[in-house]
From TrEMBL:
It comes from the Eukaryota. Residues 55-373 form the Glycosyl hydrolase family 32 N-terminal domain. The gene is invGF. This is Invertase, putative. It comes from Solanum tuberosum. The lineage of its organism: Eukaryota, Viridiplantae, Streptophyta, Embryophyta, Tracheophyta. Keywords: Glycosidase, Hydrolase. SMART domains: Glyco_32. It is an enzyme of class 3 (hydrolase).
Length: 581
């Protein structure tokens, strides 16, 4: 199976297994006491190998989608899908954690769990909205029966004076929205944050599917936030994409890096959807006609599986929020494990992490978004080392020593004297996915201008290593820059259940200055990489057997015939995030 097929179908197969587990072991949490009992049950002993040091994850068990992130009265709130009694998806509740800085967290009791007829078979993903009067409300999808019928519910804090909003109430006038006859009731979920139009009406969007292949962003309007009417047409739809999950719709400023939370026609808009057929997320940039309540992608903003992604790797079910404290738009994403079968996660006693939150804004070109780890992450930087003006000829590498390579933050700028040795871009690659090209042109395949980059989580002799690298091609009209994060040699463990793939994305960057920058966040079993200042982002999950903890190494390398210079390389050991369980 080629890499694109593998990436598209591996996780759906897992989810089929998980649905079987759910249907055979369904639990209705009739009371908070029942939940506490389940929470106290231990999974298989938790293995610490490959657990992250500075990414968010609970002490044990399964997690998935980040839900309803918000900043309220000086506190960041993160809710997320969580299984309180095991490491395989099923019997999901809304776990709840709070923070002052998006990095260090306090875990609280779950906010929402199945307990009423409108959610007795599941409490699935949703969003938070701050209503006038500074009153937060959560919208979420409830599963009402074994047929997976989905409705939209709301929950409100029991005590607004509690700074952590520990307890949430699900009023009895739920559900707020029930699918009509035109909607697939089993593909009707994940309400967005609501926004108010100039007419004073609230709007939300849900993901759905029509006739097996058309993805929909269904819109509902409301005068009072409670009683809702479905719009005559969706905000947007696209044929051939399959079901849309976890939609997100938000404005971005035309200039600068600040976020905005106003829905006027003078802004650019982002519509993101998670595609359950591919298990990737795609977004377009476009215009929002506030009178017709229609979103229209810009010309050139590809509205399909070959469109732009927030992240070209293991990143899904993302959710953004507007952070009023720092006037920024922040995005959270979930990264699942790459060991394919449930037995692997049961053995570990945990599964899934939330990725580092990222600030997101519009690139000056207006053609894509930029993402960068939130600045608070830098407070975990400790020991620092630097390299500068280090030349690497073909086949050469240099080790970065003096830090903890298994848990590090690395920023590097590469330069080169000429573009003349860039390989020709094969016209047959035009219709291929970037990761397919990366599969053909890996880090150890000699090129002209590249491959060059970082060999992360590596053994001394590179038997194990997870390279993140650039390769530059010459097309007819321009140059194409490929960024790859290659897990094929990430582990010596021979296991057919291990998903070792080459993730990749093209980087839309001007090479006039003959420089390329890369930042990689390395954290034991996850590598988040940001190419060209955050134009292209890739997340990989890897599980080395030798290159773990103090036995891990970090190298910068060049396997291209064009010499590469490390203009600057700054690397830091990263401390552990403080997460109170």
């Amino acid at each position: 199976m080629d890499y694109s097929s593998n990436s598209r179908w591996a996780l759906p197969v897992i989810l089929v297994c998980f649905f079987i587990v759910l249907l055979s072991n369904n639990v209705v949490f009739a009371s908070h006491k029942v939940f506490i009992h389940l929470q106290s049950q231990n999974a298989v002993n938790v293995q610490t190998v490959h657990r992250t040091g500075y990414h968010f994850q609970p002490e044990k068990h399964w997690i998935n989608d980040p839900n309803a992130p918000m900043y309220f009265n000086g506190v960041y709130h993160l809710f997320y899908q969580y299984k309180p009694n095991g490491s395989v998806w099923g019997n999901i509740v809304w776990a709840h954690s709070v923070s002052k800085d998006l990095i260090n967290w306090i875990n609280l009791e779950p906010a929402i769990y199945p307990s009423k007829p409108f959610d007795q078979f599941g409490t699935w993903s949703g969003s938070a909205t701050i209503l006038p009067g500074n009153k937060p409300v959560i919208l979420y999808t409830g599963i009402v029966d074994a047929n997976q019928t989905q409705v939209q519910n709301y929950a409100i804090p029991a005590n607004l004076s509690d700074p952590y909003l520990r307890e949430w109430i699900k009023p009895d006038n739920n559900p707020l929205i029930v699918a009509d006859a035109s909607i697939n009731k089993t593909k009707f979920r994940d309400p967005t944050t609501a926004w108010m139009g100039k007419d004073g009406h609230w709007r939300i969007v849900m993901g759905s599917l029509r006739k097996h292949s058309r993805g929909l962003a269904i819109m509902y309007r409301s005068k009072d936030f409670m009683k809702r009417v479905k719009a005559k047409h969706p905000l947007h739809s696209t044929n051939g994409t399959g079901n849309w999950e976890c939609p997100d719709f938000f404005p971005v400023a035309l200039k600068g890096t600040n976020g905005i939370d106003q829905y006027g026609e003078e802004y650019k808009y982002v519509l993101k959807n998670s595609m359950d057929l591919t298990r990737f997320e795609y977004y377009t940039l476009g215009k929002y006609d506030t009178k017709k309540d229609r979103y229209v992608p810009d010309v050139g903003s590809i509205d399909s599986w070959k469109g732009l992604r927030f992240d070209y790797g293991n990143f899904y079910a993302s959710k953004t929020f507007y952070d009023t404290s720092k006037n920024r738009r922040v995005i959270w994403g979930w990264s699942n494990e790459s060991d394919i079968f449930p037995e692997d996660d049961n053995a570990k006693g945990w599964a899934g992490i939330q990725l580092i939150p990222r600030k997101v804004w519009l690139d000056p070109s207006g053609k894509q978004l930029i993402q960068w780890p939130v600045e608070e992450l830098e407070t975990l930087r400790t020991q620092k080392v630097q390299l500068s003006n280090k030349k690497l000829n073909n086949g050469e590498k240099v080790e970065v020593t003096g830090i903890t390579p298994a848990q590090a933050d690395v920023e590097v700028i590469f330069s080169f004297a000429s573009l003349d040795k860039a390989e020709s871009f094969d016209s047959s690659w035009t219709d291929m996915y970037a990761q397919d090209v990366c599969g053909l042109k890996g880090a150890d395949v000699q090129g002209g201008l590249g491959p060059f980059g970082l060999a992360t989580l590596a053994t001394e002799n590179l038997e194990e290593n997870s390279p993140v690298f650039f390769r530059v091609f010459k097309a007819q009209q321009n140059y194409k820059v490929l960024l790859c994060s290659d897990a094929k040699r990430s582990t010596l463990k021979f296991n057919e259940t291990m998903y070792k793939v080459s993730f990749a994305g093209f980087v839309d960057v001007d090479l006039a200055d003959k420089k390329l920058s890369l930042r990689s966040l390395i954290d034991n079993s996850v590598i988040e990489s940001f190419g060209a200042g955050g134009k292209t982002c890739i997340t990989s999950r890897v599980y080395p057997t030798l290159a773990i903890n103090e036995k891990a190494h970090l190298f910068a390398f060049n396997n291209g015939t064009e010499p590469i210079t490390i203009e600057t390389l700054d690397a830091w050991s990263m401390g552990k995030a403080k997460i109170q369980y």
